[in-house]
């Protein structure tokens, strides 16, 4: 399973990011259920290289969270995702589900996250 997270640069100046975001899956009380490992490519078999992404004002970038939901028993779903972008000091949280209702519910293999990527 995978979830593409998009974010925008609302400022009037370009910014640049490089590296991996820190991603944590949180339960209803805010406790950490799982943390994503750097890497990506779990679903595609292709790891994206780390690159410097320049984000113009009003534009954005993405990263991808991947996990396996294959298990003999249902995998527990998270309630929120906590994300800290590379170089940032504060975490932003948002619901741990896609716009079409897919809940982030990693099984034993956990989660992996891609580096920051240019939005195409």
How many H/I helical runs?
0
User: From the structure provided, what is the oligomeric state, counting identical versus distinct chains?
Assistant: single chain
Strand content: 35-45%
Q: Which secondary-structure class do the elements indicate?
A: mainly beta
Overall 3D form: globular
Residue share in helices? under 10%
Which residues sit in consecutive blocks of at least 5 with pLDDT less than 50?
A: none
Order of helices and strands: EEEEEEEEEEE
Q: Could you tell me the radius of gyration in angstroms? A: 14 Å
Report the sheet with the most strands, covering strand number, pairing sense and barrel closure. Answer: 5 strands, mixed
Mean pLDDT: 90
Q: How widely separated are the two ends?
A: 21 Å
Whole-number count of domains: 1
**Secondary structure: number of strands:** 11
How would you explain this protein's 3D organization?
- The protein is an all-beta fold and 120 residues long.
- It has one domain.
- The chain contains no helices and 11 strands.
- The protein has strands at residues 2-8, 15-17, 22-26, 32-35, 37-38, 53-55, 60-67, 80-84, 92-95, 111-113, 117-118.
- Strand 3 and strand 4 form a beta hairpin.
- The protein is globular and about 50 Å long.
């Amino acid at each position: 399973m995978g979830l593409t997270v998009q974010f925008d640069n609302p400022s009037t100046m370009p910014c640049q990011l490089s590296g991996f975001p820190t991603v944590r899956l949180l339960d209803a009380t805010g406790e950490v259920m799982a943390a994503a490992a750097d890497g990506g490519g779990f679903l595609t078999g292709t790891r994206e290289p780390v690159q410097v992404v320049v984000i113009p004002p009003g534009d954005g970038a993405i990263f991808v969270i991947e996990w396996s939901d294959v298990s003999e028993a249902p995998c527990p779903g998270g309630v929120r995702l906590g994300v800290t972008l590379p170089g940032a000091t504060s975490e932003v949280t948002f619901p741990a589900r896609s716009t079409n209702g897919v809940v982030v519910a990693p099984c034993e293999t956990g989660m992996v996250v891609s580096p920051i990527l240019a939005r195409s």
